[in-house]
Specification:
Two copies of one chain form a homodimer. Chain A is mainly alpha-helical and 320 residues long. The first copy, chain A, has a single domain, classed as Farnesyl Diphosphate Synthase. The first copy, chain A, has 16 helices and two strands. In chain A, β1 and β2 form a beta hairpin. The two termini of chain A are 22 Å apart. The mean pLDDT of chain A is 95.
Amino acid sequence: MSQGWDSSIKDELQMVEQEIHRSIGSKQPILTEICDYVISSGGKRMRPGVTILSYLASGGKEVGEVVKIAAAFEMIHSATLIHDDINDRSEMRRSHLSAYKKFGLQQALVSGDFLFVKAFAIGGFFNEEIVNLVAEACTAIAESEIVQFEKEGEVAPLDVYLGIVEGKTAKPIMAGARIGAYLANADPDRIHAMGEYGLNIGMAFQIVDDILDIVGTESSLGKPRMVDFFEGKATLPMIYAMEDPQVVPRLSQLFHKKVKGEKDVEEAWAIIARTDAVERSKLKANEYAEKALAALNGLPDSEHRLGLQRLATKVVDRNY
Amino acid sequence: MSQGWDSSIKDELQMVEQEIHRSIGSKQPILTEICDYVISSGGKRMRPGVTILSYLASGGKEVGEVVKIAAAFEMIHSATLIHDDINDRSEMRRSHLSAYKKFGLQQALVSGDFLFVKAFAIGGFFNEEIVNLVAEACTAIAESEIVQFEKEGEVAPLDVYLGIVEGKTAKPIMAGARIGAYLANADPDRIHAMGEYGLNIGMAFQIVDDILDIVGTESSLGKPRMVDFFEGKATLPMIYAMEDPQVVPRLSQLFHKKVKGEKDVEEAWAIIARTDAVERSKLKANEYAEKALAALNGLPDSEHRLGLQRLATKVVDRNY
């Protein structure tokens, strides 16, 4: 019987939910409602999961502290989702209306700030090393969002694309993984290795997200297909497709159209599907997943190590 | 010769500027540029000033730590200004284009997040008591913004209005004043008293801001007069004016107009000016300023105590 990557930490993930719900309590019920709406509407809890598994696999025994920091990372993630949807004017997220569509821009913006504050309040109770790691991760998110805005409407070079993915997705997961090992009193090499696991799993995860934006269906994605293309964001499959000189002229033309119709998007989809772009993207994601697995070398066998291994497989082998 | 309220802390305020500039450094120059634009464009540095004066007047000698926390409060303040302008669609702030008008919504939103993160990174290096005070202040800001949105287009009862002012303006200044005294190792009574000073000076300051929105000129304000009225925000003079049954019918009609023209705003201005609303608002602001002064009772004489006293006078006796 196949088990989930998180089967060894069900209790801890439940504690994370409780910590989040405790943290988002407010005198203003709408703040709690919006935060709860965003946090409850799906999400794979990969960020807290990696943090907790990293802690337990590194020999940690008392989960109280790591649960708190895992909750903080999930809250930071949710805050960025709320603000991202405002910035991208995204109407749907995980089959639900985005927070700003449902509750209004003002309320959503402030709820994102509120979540940041509450997450940092948790992080602030830890020592300088942890505060630094949390702050660096949040800085990386903001900085890579800026690069993403600047590159909107362009097919960025591969290294720029990978830099954006690293800052927006991989570095926060890396920070969580590092903190997990740090709290377990792991040695510096182990802390570094767990960080590498987090970084690479994050890269793989985001690339697969980008692939799913092309090969997924509206019902599996919970939002329309090819949203990135429609919004002028060149993701890895698009970057690879543009390396094929035969498709460049038309695909470029479609990508650079300021107002894209449904037909344009469908045509671009068909063009990308004809190239080897999706296959190459999958190989790239697999490469990262393998690096994540390799980072676990030397980690003692345990159900938690197994969970981390399963997650590396799951991340590249999913359709939602 | 009359001296400024901040004449005893010029060096420390300079250190705050340096701390802020060090903190907002980024690999993405636009983030630094936006933060610098907002932080440099005027501002009275009242928040860091109160924190530092509270520290020094309470006997603090080593300004290194209080400068950091003072910088953090100014950065949090600037972050909320950036996000507020997005939420209010305000085009002007302190005679400059608002950040979102100048740099675009996405860039401004992320810059606000970036400033929050950097401010919290500073706050996170302090102990739990301080982290709690900073987090509570930020929570109060977010919660009172929500109340403000909910009351937009209504003439809120006096206590609701005062609650919004307390959360948005007074509690953050209170937290800074408390932390100043705390870092100076003041006893709990002194910490409480300095908090009362900050709370009351904040109330007075915001009420005077609301008065200036009515009696000020576009050139002294750096933005159009009666912006609050135009945006459907009932401030203290409006609330008082609405207590005059003679003016209620027409003033209410103008206030509730969904689309207000220049003539509507001018007419409303003339109506409010005919009542005693501005005078009563000034009395209320004076009341708070006097409470702030009273909170300084028992504080040993010093140039810093004098600075706090001068600030209490200055806050209610200014035209910009």
